[in-house]
Write a structure and sequence with these properties.
mainly alpha; 0% strand
Length: 69
């Protein structure tokens, strides 16, 4: 196993959704339902998670699990 995370919290929300479409579902399940909103186009994952009161580390784990399947 590769210990390096594929997705990092400084990546853009739209960037990861374009690369890994399955991440959109993870974001919505975790409470970030604003995938289509304007902010998603320039926010990083960390920005979005913090704005939604989400656990950044838990979100990152879920996103990386989704892309590693």
């Amino acid at each position: 196993g590769n210990s390096m995370a594929t997705i990092t919290k400084d990546m853009g929300i739209m960037e990861i959704i374009e690369k890994w479409p399955q991440t959109a579902q993870v974001l919505m399940q975790q409470g970030m339902g604003c995938i289509g909103c304007a902010a998603a186009h320039f926010e990083t994952i960390e920005d979005g998670a913090v704005a939604h009161g989400m656990d950044v580390d838990a979100l990152m784990a879920a996103l990386n699990a989704a892309v590693e399947q």
